């Protein structure tokens, strides 16, 4: 029997259906439709490069026979019996790193002397020939276990130069030997997040051709999430000095074809290349002590010295790689730990409070219109690169205006770009309202993942951040104002960071009254 309740309903006329559908969709407000983000600008970082950059700081651990022989570059002839760190505790190293705010550690698994801190099957010149743990210990294994437990990323340094191995200098034999050792390190110890190589070699040493391309392919095959460091990338590059200081202009853009491992122009490494086709961000390596290995006669840098290095490395779009060498007992020394803790406290005191975040923020324009929440200026107070302020396209002005609602003193500006969308900003400046007029406080060049700009203390309620030049419409993911009561500045109040673009013209200059002509 037919369902009477069903039959009692009159079906919708086919002719009325288009009207019904039209009314349904017209009821959906246009505001419910998202505005697509702007196009990324090439080159872009890989997923592993993004994770590397977000970590900001890594701890380098130089450790080996040099620790016991008061040497920096071992000859490769020291007896394995000298290596006996009776109190070695790799978990202490990891704990020190984590407590100080470092999210990855990198160990010299083999330095230039050729001594291996793991039980390699390709040489007897290793921990298995030492008295430590009766020849059964494995420093790499202990560090890997400690890092995994603490949630700290692990990196390994395997020196290409080997002063002990007899086949060094025989191109085919040594490259096979090196790849064998690399395979051991990348298949025994779980996830490796960074592989560190360099072109260091003493004068008068044997000539040696390294098959870098084969090495890099193997590393990415065995550890696809690892970044590879060298003078020329492929994933991260050396900054060009061992002082931990990046150029005041520092691009993650780079041309690997212009770089040679062991022979890259330091100035090119320091500044990068605004016209580069490759994404190869810079890593700033520096030691907490005068030497890279521990020496009883040396003392660590002060927390203030470390803070200054931080501004000039992590604060210039780089990762800070700070070497903290374990001592001959196998522990990080108390004085080094104290310096690291004081360094952490300085950073906490300065950067834990964003003096701008309670202010009223407006922008010269907003992508999708002023009511668009997705690209609103207040995104710059969220600590994430994935939310950002984006201006409307084809604008003459790129400005963020900030009303702090009361007069505030500050002397540090922090700016960040959403680097997954590419590095864009070429030049910017900060102005404050003083005496009824706008006054320039600081000018800067590149931003990238993080830019920290110091200047003598100013006080104001009103300020504006002006983007003067950019490779494309600028995007800002974070803006912070901070008070550093510890650093002593030696430069004038109207400080301008120099702009270097390797002899090439600026890609784009904003044609407005806020722009300033750059000398390039």
TrEMBL record:
EC assignment: 3.2.1.51
One Pfam family in the UniProt entry: Alpha_L_fucos
Compartments where found: Secreted, Extracellular space, Apoplast
Entry keyword RNA-binding: no
One Gene Ontology cellular component annotation held by this UniProt entry: apoplast
Metal-binding in keyword set: no
Domain called Glycoside hydrolase family 29 N-terminal: residue spans: 81-343
Primary location class: secreted
GO molecular function: alpha-L-fucosidase activity
Gene3D superfamilies per record: Galactose-binding domain-like, Glycosidases
GO-annotated biological processes: fucose metabolic process; glycoside catabolic process
Transmembrane segments: none
Keywords linked to the UniProt accession: Apoplast, Glycoprotein, Glycosidase, Hydrolase, Secreted, Signal
Family that this chain belongs to: Belongs to the glycosyl hydrolase 29 family.
Protein name: alpha-L-fucosidase
Natural source organism: Gossypium mustelinum (Cotton)
């Amino acid at each position: 029997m037919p369902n009477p309740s069903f039959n009692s309903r009159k079906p919708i006329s086919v002719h009325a259906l288009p009207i019904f559908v039209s009314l349904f969709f017209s009821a959906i407000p246009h505001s419910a439709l998202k505005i697509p983000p702007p196009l990324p600008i090439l080159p872009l970082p890989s997923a592993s490069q993004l994770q590397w950059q977000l970590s900001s700081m890594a701890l380098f651990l130089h450790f080996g026979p040099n620790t016991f022989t008061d040497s920096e570059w071992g000859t490769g002839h020291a007896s394995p019996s000298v290596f006996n760190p009776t109190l070695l505790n790799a978990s202490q190293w990891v704990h020190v790193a984590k407590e100080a705010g470092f999210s990855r550690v990198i160990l010299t698994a083999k330095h230039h002397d050729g001594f291996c801190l793991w039980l390699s099957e390709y040489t007897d010149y290793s921990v298995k020939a030492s008295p430590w743990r009766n020849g059964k210990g494995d420093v790499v294994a202990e560090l890997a276990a400690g890092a995994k437990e603490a949630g700290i990323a692990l990196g390994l340094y395997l020196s290409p130069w080997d002063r002990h191995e007899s086949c060094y200098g025989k191109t085919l034999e040594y490259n096979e030997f090196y790849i064998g050792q690399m395979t051991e390190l990348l298949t025994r110890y779980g996830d490796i997040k960074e592989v560190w190589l360099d072109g260091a070699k003493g004068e008068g040493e044997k000539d040696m051709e390294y098959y870098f391309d084969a090495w890099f392919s193997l590393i990415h095959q065995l550890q696809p999430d690892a970044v590879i460091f060298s003078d020329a990338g492929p994933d991260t590059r050396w900054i060009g000095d061992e002082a931990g200081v990046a150029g005041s202009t520092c691009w993650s853009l780079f041309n690997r074809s212009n770089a040679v491992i062991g022979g890259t122009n330091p100035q090119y490494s320091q500044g990068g290349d605004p016209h580069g086709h490759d994404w190869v961000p810079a890593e700033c390596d520096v030691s907490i002590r005068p030497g890279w290995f521990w020496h009883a006669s040396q003392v660590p840098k002060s927390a203030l010295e470390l803070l200054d290095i931080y501004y000039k490395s992590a604060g210039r779009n780089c990762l800070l790689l700070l070497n903290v060498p374990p001592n001959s007992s196998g522990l990080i020394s108390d004085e080094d730990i104290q310096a690291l803790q004081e360094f952490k406290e300085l950073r906490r005191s300065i950067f834990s409070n964003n003096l701008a975040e309670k202010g009223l923020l407006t922008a010269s324009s907003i992508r999708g219109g002023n009511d668009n929440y997705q690209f609103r200026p207040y995104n710059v107070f969220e600590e994430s690169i994935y939310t950002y302020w984006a201006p409307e396209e084809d604008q003459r002005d790129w400005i963020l205006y900030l009303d702090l609602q009361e007069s505030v003193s500050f002397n540090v500006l922090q700016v960040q770009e959403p680097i997954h969308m590419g590095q864009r900003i070429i030049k910017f400046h900060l102005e404050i309202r003083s005496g009824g007029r706008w006054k320039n406080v600081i000018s800067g060049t590149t931003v990238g993942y993080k830019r920290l700009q110091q200047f003598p203390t100013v006080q104001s309620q009103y300020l504006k951040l002006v983007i003067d030049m950019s490779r494309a419409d600028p995007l800002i993911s974070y803006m912070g104002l901070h008070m550093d009561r510890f650093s002593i500045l030696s430069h004038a109040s109207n400080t301008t960071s120099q702009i270097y673009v390797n002899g090439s013209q600026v890609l784009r200059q904003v044609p407005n009254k806020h722009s300033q002509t750059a000398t390039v």
